[in-house]
Predict the structure of EAL domain-containing protein.
Amino acid sequence: MKRFTLLQFTLWLLALCAAAMANIMVFHSYGMHKQEAMQAQLQRFIDLQPSMNVEQVKEQAPLLAEQLVALMPVQKLWLRDSNGEVLSSKTPRTEESFLAQISQLQFETLRSQFATSQDAELRVEFVADINYMASAFEQSLIYFALVITLVCFIPIASLKTAYRGYRRRIADIVSAIIDQFITNNDMPEPINRAFADDSLKLKLANQISPALNRLQAHLGLQIENIASSALEIKKEAYKDVITELGNRNMFVEYYERHIEHASDDCFGCVALVRGTELQHINQSKGYQQGDEYIRSIADILTAGIRNYGSASVFRLNSSDFAVVLPNTPPKEAERFALQVQIKFNQYQKVYNLPSVAYIGIVPFEQHKPLSELLANVDIAMNIAQSKHANAWHMLRAEDISASAVQGTQNWRKMINEMLEKQAVDLAVQPIMPLGKSSVAYSEIQARFRDEEGHILPTSSFMAMADQLGKSVDLDQMIIDHSLNAIKSKNLTAQYFGINVSAASAHDDKFMIWLERRLIKEGDFAQRLVFEISELGLQRDIISSKRFISMLHRCGARLTVEKFGVGLTSFKFFREFKPDYIKMDSSYTRGLEDDKNNQYFMRLMVDLAHRIGVRVFAEGVESLEEKQIIEQLCLDGAQGYFIEKPKELH
């Protein structure tokens, strides 16, 4: 369109110039002819005049000049004698039109013309006046220019309108071709048959077809790359970092695809393996040893499924693994559990552990919901944990309801025996003060043993006690034993921390009992710090407030442990103002390389210090972590690097 407009403008300009040039040349020719005619007319006029002598010529010159000016259109007129002397002159008009000026400048159209009498006594010289003719030519040139302009620019306007319509039509046709390409996932063959109804569409289809085919090939390659990248990302997202096994997300997807929504008949067994010593190892030996412990369990399970075809191992969370044994009957699953148990026993002896892991097994069949299966395998796990170290239990379909009761009864019996015998061991792990802070304390940790003297998994033990409503009794026993041990060993000058469950903190009877116990201890109560988890405080804000107020009335202090894993706002801390917060170990682990955790901990320290709350870090197991914690201005550090838990003495 731009090229066409430029071409039309050029043609218009050339036509206008040509018309102007032709007009000037015609005007010049006409002017020359006009002057010759005027010269002939003047000569005839002079010839008709009677002969005059010199004196008569001089006398008649002015009158004759007036007659000639009236007779002929002239710009200038001179009457001269035989010697060339001017007898009379007239200049009726001096202005020239633009066209006359151009013609005069280019061709010298207007020249002086002469006529002489027969006796040569009179010579007339004049310059013709052709301005009236020039005006006519100029007007005709203007009309011609208007016509040329219309002829040149009307096509531009009409073509622009036509171009817009054509462009819309082309766009509609291309859109239709692309739609058909998308529908068929290829250009239809033959093209002339598919687009025979429209010649323009057929031409465009033939022209666009190679480009669309190239686009199809390119998009296909891109889709393959994206699918490959997505698969890699999915593998990374579904992979556990420590063990490189599939994580819980992969387990859920595997179960839903191959069991719950399977199209073919399927059966088998699922085993839940729980590494119950992880928390104890993390606290006593450090998180690096804890990772090694988890990797060892993963290696034992991976080696154990090698003879079971398509069996798979997944890590569900920090301490739990799932083993899927497709097409495996319960008897064969029991054989698998025995083999794994032997490996666990060997590992236990080598590393001198109370236990390694417990196994709960349940059979499954096609379309069994995952939630139901997990509930049943958790029952099997509870029963296994109520037995000896590294025990396993197979929960068959016909025993599910009875086994649930049996597992609960076993735990209830074990916990009641512990309470009856007042059997609890106490260990202590100190918190080292950092910087200018001199206030810290030692945390008292409870340990429980079975009939054979093996240490039971504390987390499972306390969780079952909470489930069975025994948390208050256990916490009372632990507090009594702790206070008695401190006084008997004459350690009342030191500060000690004691863990309290959320169930006990929110129990009115326990609160009354603890208040009386603290009042009885007098000044020693001021050296006691009670630890409760952040999530536990969130269960019941009102009860938490009453519990904290009671501790402060008695002079005791409160630590919010595992801080940072919940959603508690600092409005809560401004209202109830705990004395300490203990950052969850997940923020300490690898702190030297994690800028996000450093920023978060620094923010928490600044906010806590503004309201007078001291901040501790737990899980410190390297010099680098300790140095970073000191730089972040925390008030204390606890962990394997600082000091291992040891017997209270």
